[in-house]
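Sorry to interrupt, but I need a hand with the structure work. Go ahead and set the record down below:
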Amino acid sequence: MSLAAKPVIRIEKFNLYYGAFQALKNINMQINEKQVTAIIGPSGCGKSTLLRSINRMNDLVENVRIEGQILIEDNPIYDHGMDLITLRKKAGMVFQRPNPFPLSIFENVAFGLRLHFRLKEDEIYDRVQKSLEAVNLWEELHQRLENSALSLSGEQQQRLCIARLIAVSSDIVLMDEPCSALDPIATQRIEELIRELKRDYTIVIVTHNMAQAARVSDETAYFYLGELIEMGPTERIFTTPEKKETEDYITGRFG
């Protein structure tokens, strides 16, 4: 970890229950600003549950109960006064399958701007352009902005969904298996985008693909059965992990 790394998300003694089932067990970790943090582990280990806890998407699930706290820039997000719209603007989610709105390319990015801000049309256009430029879509799409977003390729749709977050000033981008529906070439391009975006954004990515975690992340956290087994710089986790459970998973002896 860089000495200059600044924690932007702190997770403290965090437990989450679905009814009687405990999905996350006493999680303590920090996620640093303008880095990519990968969360890896076998299916059902709590990776996506943790990711969805960072912007309280789990609030939408019945019988969820939490203990402990998650802080974003020292603000406890599970306090009663937390505004969820503001939280989800700051920490936006990219899902496994791209989910563009059935609107034009332009209106997909402008939608959140119209909803959350009072901007003139030329200001909206500028923000849409900057957001599409950030995900390397402007050059290929600027003459097709009125076309349906549903006409785009899967990779372009995923980039558009990221642009939609950036437009409303998300500082934190949460990615839940963002390449699982994409072919290898499209996956490579999204990974290149992730590396570019970390200059300006904090990214947390859940992935089953350990090679992907090794390629794109600065820090890696290994989860098993709802517990954080080990977390550290990605290179160390993949070459000299401290815990035998991590080594067994990384080397394919388990999971």
